[in-house]
Amino acid sequence: MKTEKYIMKRLFLCSSFADVADLLPELVGKERGTVTFIPTAALHEEYNLYVAEGRAALERLGYTVEELEITQATAEVIEQTLERNDCIYVSGGNLFFLMQELRRKGADRAIVRRVKAGALYIGESAGSMIAAPNIAYAQVMDAVATAYTPDFRDFDALGLVDFYTVPHYGCEPFEESAEETVRTYSHLPLRPITNTQAICVEGDRTRIVSIGSTPVSGGE
Fold first, then answer.
1. How would residue 213 be classed by pLDDT, with cut points 50, 70 and 90?
2. Which terminus of the chain has a smaller tally of CB atoms within 10 A, N or C?
3. Does residue 91 carry a catalytic annotation?
4. Are 193 and 165 in contact (CB under 8 A)?
């Protein structure tokens, strides 16, 4: 009788990847590989320097980066690009625009399939928030109704984890919106993290790690 191989999902969720990139080896060890780099969330943002900084941080760690801008790619190209790379990196920006475009191209389902098949998922800010089951909780921190998301209604997200990341907690210029998110959605299993913390997920184990310190929370 053939036994199905168990593949452990792995995620690295953060607020600012450039600030915590050196924590990634705590999750993946000496592993290096190829990364599908998705900058789509930042497409219409006035400030998007973090996209270039995130890419540079990946390359500094030894990863080979292949950019995949979802709005400009066909469903077939998206599938092929995700399939041939070892990791998926989803940058920050407007997560409602990001989720809209991922869903429109079928990239949301393709990403979930790859993570379940063993691909490492790295999410920065918006990219970390869409890993949750639902992104309605992000309405305090981000604009739902924009010129690019006029009819956004479906708040279902990737559902890669069963908790809700609150990025930039206690960090400018998000102090008030992050705190309000924590107050308003206290009934949810929230995971607030600063710009110098990251959430490492390995299978059923979740821990928060910080630059210059030991893990600040244990497994669940």
1. low
2. N
3. no
4. yes
Helix-helix angle 107-116:75-84, to 10 degrees: 20
**Number of C-alpha atoms within 13 angstroms, CB side, residue 212?**
3
Under DSSP, is residue 11 helix (H, G, I), strand (E, B) or coil?
Answer: strand
Mean pLDDT of the chain: 92
Is 185 in contact with 132 (CB distance < 8 Å)? no
Tokens for 162?
């069963």
* Calpha distance 68→60 (Å, rounded): 19
Catalytic-residue membership of 168: yes
Q: Which of 16, 168, 187, 217 is catalytic?
A: 168
3-state secondary structure of 180: helix
Q: Which of these is catalytic: 15, 16, 91, 125?
A: 125
CA 167, chain centre distance (Å): 10
Nearest to 138 by CA among 106, 184, 171: 184
B/e letters for 183-211, b = 16+ CB within 10 Å, e = fewer, are: eebeebebbbbbbbbbbbbeeeebbbbbe
